[in-house]
Design a protein that fits this description.
Blueprint: H1 2-33, H2 37-43, E1 52-59, E2 65-72, H3 79-91
Antiparallel strand pairs: 1-2
Length: about 100
């Protein structure tokens, strides 16, 4: 019984260490990736006139002010929809690129 517990302990230690190293590697990767000024512009493009912006400022009872800025893009396509279209394009018998409808 003790040997089985030791095996399970080793397995879960491996799972936790794998997750920890993956998280650490992801943080390092994204910190190096977002060093330049170009990365900020890709993640947060400038607001155009066709886009609408909503700013909500909330004061909490303990004195913390929270500012929420929501930008609504005119031709926004959710990431899940883009991923679904990309996956569908792999199984589409035609050689056309994924549609942006």
């Amino acid at each position: 019984m003790a040997a089985r517990a030791a095996v399970w302990n080793a397995r879960w230690a491996l799972v936790y260490s794998l997750g920890g190293w993956t998280a650490l590697g992801g943080m390092i990767h994204y910190s190096y990736r977002s060093d330049g000024a170009g990365a900020e512009n890709e993640n947060h493009p400038p607001v155009e006139e066709s886009d609408s912006r909503e700013v909500v400022v909330t004061d909490t009872p303990i004195g913390i002010r929270i500012t929420t800025v929501s930008t609504y893009n005119k031709d926004f396509v959710p990431p899940a929809t883009r991923l679904l279209r990309r996956v569908k394009s792999f199984f589409d018998p035609t050689d056309s690129p994924p549609s942006e409808k």
